[in-house]
Amino acid sequence: MRFRLTPRETSFYDMFAASADNIVTGSKLLMELLGADTPARGEIAERMRAAEHAGDDATHAIFHQLNSSFITPFDREDIYNLASSLDDIMDFMEEAVDLVVLYKVEELPKGVDQQIEVLARAAELTAEAMPNLRTMDSLTEYWIEINRLENQADQIHRKLLAHLFSGKYDAIEVLKLKQIVDVLEEAADAFEHVANTVETIAVKES
After folding, report:
1. 31-37, Cβ contacts within 8 angstroms, sequence gap of 24 or more
2. What is the C-alpha separation between 93 and 184, in angstroms, rounded?
3. Mean pLDDT throughout 16-35?
4. Contact status, residue 185 vs residue 161, Cβ threshold 8 Å
5. What phi and psi, each to the nearest 5 degrees, are found at residue 26?
6. SUPFAM superfamilies attached here (predicted)?
7. Which site in 24, 53, 139, 177 is 20 to 30 Å from 92, CA atoms measured?
C-alpha cells in the first residue's frame, strides 16, 4: 500500500492561514462595534456570530485532517494546540460583542478602544505569520511583538479595572463592564498562546 503524503502535509498551512484570516475579520467587527450605535450593534453581533461559526468550521477541518493524516508537518500536539488557541481567540471576541448587546451597554468605558486596537494589531500579525510556518522564516519577530502587545494589553486592562472601580459606575454596571473587558483580555492572552505555540514549533523544527 502506498501512502499519499501530499497534499495532506501541506493542507494544514492553508487551514491555519484561513483560520487566522477569519480572526482578522473578527477584529474588524470589534472595531466597527466601537463606533456603532445601539441598533447597529445587533447586526454586528450577527456577523460576528457567523465569523465565529466559520472559525469553528476551520478548527474542525484541522482536527479532521489531523485525525486522518499519517504524516503531519510538525507534532500532532502542536497542531492541536495551535488550532485550539486560534479558535479561542474567535470565541472570546464573539463573546465580548455578544455581551455588549445582551447587557445593552450604552457606552463602553474609555480604554476599551485601546484594548480592541491591540487585538486588531495582533490579528494582523498572526495572519501574516501563519503562511511562514511553511518555511519557519521571519517568525521570531512575530512572537516577540505579540508578547509585547500582550504586555500592553495587560497594562490597559489594569487601568480599565481601576477606572471601573473608581466609583463612577454603580455596582451592576461595574459587573457588566468588567466581564466585557475581562473577555477582551482573554482574547489578548489567546493571541500570546498562539505565538508561544508557534515558537515551540519553530524551536523543534530548527
Report:
1. 31/116, 31/117, 31/120, 33/97, 33/100, 33/116, 34/108, 34/112, 34/113, 34/116
2. 7
3. 96
4. no
5. -65, -40
6. PhoU-like (SSF109755)
7. 139
71 alpha-carbon distance from chain centroid:
27
Let me know: does 115 contact 185? Beta carbons within 8 Å: yes
Cα-based angle 186, 36, 125 (whole degrees, multiple of 5): 40
Query: Looking at per-residue confidence, does 23 or 69 come out higher?
Result: 23
- Across the range 113-134, mean pLDDT stands at 97
* CA distance linking residue 65 with residue 188, whole number of Å: 27
Going by C-alpha positions, the residue among 42, 62, 3, 16 that lies closest to residue 198 is 16
Does this model's pTM top 0.85? yes
Burial degree of 11 (CB within 10 A; 0-12, 13-18, 19+)? middle
Identify whether the C-beta of residue 144 lies closer than 8 Å to the C-beta of residue 106: no
C-alpha 155/C-alpha 149 separation (Å) is 10
Residue keyed to cell 474609555: 110
pLDDT in tens, 79-105: 999 999 999 999 999 999 999 999 999
Distance (Å, whole) CA 183 – CA 189: 10
How far CA 109 is from CA of 100, 143, 170, in Å, comes to 12, 29, 13
Q: What percent of the chain is predicted at pLDDT more than 90? A: 84
